[in-house]
């Protein structure tokens, strides 16, 4: 007999983590000025190469090219501000369908 495992509470989202937005940095265009790390230090940090990378919810720097992390809900405004003000226009805040919420090269 097939049974379906249905927990009384369906997979809750992690507290404070948006299920909607994700963010990445294109290091090829990063100027290393540090604005993003000032605005949202929980999400952006420099690696030893002097370029900005995103961090996951455990604070682990994601150094793979094009790595995304979810945008924590309380930090959405700060991350969007960083993307809007990034001098390298190299922060991409994307929706699940890949469309741009903020940042990226100005079209
Ligand atoms: S604000 Fe943009 S250009 Fe400046 S360090 Fe962050 S990702 Fe790089």
Automatic annotation (TrEMBL):
Keywords: 4Fe-4S, Electron transport, Iron, Iron-sulfur, Metal-binding, Transport
InterPro entries: 3Fe4S_ferredoxin, ET_Ferredoxin
Cofactor names: [4Fe-4S] cluster
Keyword Iron-sulfur: yes
GO molecular function terms listed in the Swiss-Prot or TrEMBL record: 4 iron, 4 sulfur cluster binding; electron transfer activity; iron ion binding
Record flagged with keyword Membrane: no
Alphabetized Pfam families for the sequence: Fer4_15
Function: Ferredoxins are iron-sulfur proteins that transfer electrons in a wide variety of metabolic reactions.
Protein name (record): Ferredoxin
Native species: Frankia casuarinae (strain DSM 45818 / CECT 9043 / HFP020203 / CcI3)
């Amino acid at each position: 007999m097939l049974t379906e495992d249905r927990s009384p509470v369906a997979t809750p989202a992690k507290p404070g983590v948006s299920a909607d937005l994700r963010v990445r940095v294109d290091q090829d265009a990063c100027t290393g000025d540090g604005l993003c790390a000032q605005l949202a230090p929980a999400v952006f940090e420099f690696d030893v190469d002097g370029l900005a990378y995103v961090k996951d919810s455990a604070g682990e720097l994601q150094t793979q090219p094009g790595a995304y992390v979810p945008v924590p809900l309380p930090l959405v405004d700060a991350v969007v501000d960083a993307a809007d003000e990034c001098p390298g226009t190299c922060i991409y805040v994307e929706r699940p369908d890949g469309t741009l919420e903020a940042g990226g090269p100005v079209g």
